[in-house]
Amino acid sequence: KSIGSSRKARLKAVCDETSQFYHCQLMRNPGAEAGAARSYLAGRGLGGDVPKTWQLGFAPGRGQLVRHLAAKGFKPDEMMQANVALSGDGGRLRDRFFNRIMFPIYDPQGECIAFGGRVMGKGEPKYLNSQETPLFHKSQVLYGMDKAKAAMASTGVAVVVEGYTDVIALHEAGLRNAVATLGTALTMRHIRLLARHAQHRIVYLFDGDEAGQRAADRALAFIDDSMTPEAGRTKIELAAVTLPDDLDPADFVAARGADALRTLV
């Protein structure tokens, strides 16, 4: 176990240093690509203090992260195990994320354990998450949980959305009990984690477009009384809301305000 815990501490240190590097790139890199990342965030209402609050970043790629981490004393196998680097041709290390806006993913205690990256422009996939690592199991992790757990405890309600930017937009609008799943549907593990903090209700918030409707239908099949876990003595209520007019949560809050969303929830 001691080997495991010291190893995990090393991998967390890799993730922490990586998130600081990406953040510095977003804030200070004078290049056109980093500039485009700043413009994109500002255009989505995620400028001002938001990048600092959420430690948003920019991944320049081209081996810049690998060189930075090596200079800080991290070993290739540590970078690969933390999934911030990959072994390329001839075993040469390369950065896993290239020309993406970076969203660090934290555990509930606020330690960085993984990353999500959003492509700039046309590339595929639009969102790329860290793969499973010794630190990161996406069926058990929710984006924003470290920041949302206090509001979940005080309101008794958790709001689950689908995207990083939706979580940030809701928190910035004062709905601080919002989290997102990381490219997976809600699992029983997620629900148990949420039920620890939100004692009364979990509200799954879906986009108003067709994909959102389909996801809501799938969720409703999952939200069956038999699936609802006993959280202590009381059952926790699971509910789904589909937003109107093709809106996603960020757009809805921008267009109609936080109070309108609170009413829906």
Main features:
single chain; 265 residues; alpha/beta; four-stranded antiparallel beta sheet; four-stranded parallel beta sheet; 11 helices; 19% strand; globular
Describe this structure in words.
The protein is α/β, with parallel strands linked by helices and 265 residues long. 43% of the residues lie in helices and 19% in strands. The strands form four sheets. A four-stranded antiparallel sheet has the order 1-4-5-6, covered by helices on one side. A four-stranded parallel sheet has the order 8-7-9-12. α1 packs across α2, α7 runs parallel beside α10 and α10 crosses α11.
**Helix content bin:** 40-55%
Query: Structural class given helices, strands, pairing?
Result: alpha/beta
Oligomer designation: single chain
Give the helix tally: 11
Largest sheet: 4 strands, antiparallel
Strand order of the largest sheet: 1-4-5-6
The rough form would be described as globular
How large is the share of residues in beta strands? Answer: 15-25%
Topology pattern, helix = H, strand = E:
HHHEHHEEEEEHEHEHEHEEEHH
What is the terminal-to-terminal distance? 43 Å
Q: What's the Cα radius of gyration? A: 19 Å
Mean pLDDT: 91
Could you tell me the number of beta strands? 12
Low-confidence stretches: none
